[in-house]
Structure formats: C-alpha cells, structure tokens
C-alpha cells in the first residue's frame, strides 16, 4: 500500500514540471488520441484529451484530462473492453500519465491504476511504459502488469506547429 501511495503522489508532483516555460500562446483545446498497447494482449485504444495546448520557444506541450476506452477487438468470451479516465502531460521529450481503468471480460471486471512515463515527440507522438496496479487481490482479466503504449495526439494546432 505504501509503495502504491508513493508512486501516485510522486506522479502528481512531477507531472506539472514539464509545462513551465515561456509561452507564446495558451488555448484550451482538445485532441483525438488513438493508440496501441502491448501487454499480455494487444489492446487498441481511442481517447479524447481535453485540456491546454501550449506552443513555446522550447517546443510544444499538451496536458489535460484524458478519457476513452481500449479493447482487444476479439469476439465472444475473449473480448476485453476497458473504459478509462486519467491525466496526461506530454511535450517536448517527456510524457507522463496516470489513468484509472476498469477492464471487463466475460462478465468479470478488474479495476487498475496505471501510472505511465515515457518519451514524447513535441506532444504529438508518445511512447510510454506503464505498470498496472491492481486494486483488488483477484486478477480475473487476462491483462499484464507491464505495458508499452504508443499514442498520437491529433490536434490541428499541435500538428501544424510540430511539422512547420
């Protein structure tokens, strides 16, 4: 329990650091964020990121609330679907996230907290490592503790500023 608390508290205090820089403009915005993660299963995800996009002399950053779902796209009892909500800050070279996910498979569910950290290319593409912290002792769903995730933040201003 102490280990979980330290991880969550550390994540909350370290996440805002990457957004402090000289800002040219600030604009509340949103991004569509598709992705793929690899754990025991390959899961596909689609998310919406609502927050703030910043373009500064040091690079781009996007941060805010992220919600969506992921699935392995299998049929029948092997299908996994997982609604989720979390926080993300990604920009320049760093991506930090914390997400609450509820996995459903064959009328069973598993609630997890997922802290993630990784590398980012200007907030547009993120490659992260995450560790599922299972919030109950029984793990009914066939998901792994460790995961690698690749996501893209699709926002017109972010894409224009990243590639122009």
Fraction of residues in β-strands: over 45%
User: From the helix content, strand content and strand pairing, which structural class follows?
Assistant: mainly beta
Number of strands: 9
Main pleated-sheet profile? 8 strands, antiparallel, barrel
Residue runs with pLDDT of under 50 for 5 or more positions: 15-22
Measured on Cα atoms, how large is the radius of gyration?
Answer: 16 Å
Q: What general outline do the C-alpha atoms trace? A: elongated
Task: Give the spatial strand order of the biggest sheet.
Answer: 1-2-3-4-5-6-7-9
Work out the helix count: 2
Distance between the termini: 47 Å
Order of helices and strands: HEEEEEEEEEH
Q: Average pLDDT across residues? A: 85
Percentage of helical residues?
A: 10-25%
Summarize this structure briefly.
The protein is mainly β and 164 residues long.
Element layout with pairings:
Blueprint: H1 2-14, E1 23-38, E2 42-56, E3 59-71, E4 81-91, E5 94-105, E6 108-121, E7 125-131, E8 133-134, E9 146-152, H2 156-163
Antiparallel strand pairs: 1-2, 1-9, 2-3, 3-4, 4-5, 5-6, 6-7, 6-8, 7-9
In words, what does this structure look like?
The structure is a single chain. By secondary structure, the protein is mostly beta strands. Helices cover 13% and strands 59% of the residues. It has two helices and nine strands, in the order αβββββββββα. Strands 1-2-3-4-5-6-7-9 form an eight-stranded antiparallel beta barrel. It is elongated, with a radius of gyration of 16 Å. About 5% of the residues have low confidence.
């Amino acid at each position: 329990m102490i280990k979980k608390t330290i991880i969550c508290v550390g994540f909350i205090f370290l996440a805002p650091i990457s957004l402090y820089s000289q800002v040219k403009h600030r604009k509340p915005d949103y991004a569509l964020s598709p992705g793929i993660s690899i754990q025991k299963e390959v899961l596909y995800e689609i998310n919406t990121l609502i927050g703030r996009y910043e373009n500064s002399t040091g690079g781009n950053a996007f941060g805010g609330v992220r919600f969506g779902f992921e699935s392995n796209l299998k049929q029948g009892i092997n299908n996994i679907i997982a609604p989720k909500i979390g926080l993300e800050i990604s920009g320049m070279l760093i991506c930090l996230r914390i997400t609450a996910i509820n996995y459903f498979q064959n009328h069973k569910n598993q609630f997890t907290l997922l802290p993630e950290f990784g590398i980012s290319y200007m907030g547009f593409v993120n490659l992260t490592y995450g560790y599922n912290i299972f919030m109950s002792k029984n793990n009914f769903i066939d998901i792994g503790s460790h995961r690698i995730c690749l996501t893209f933040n699709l926002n017109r201003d972010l894409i224009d500023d990243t590639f122009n």
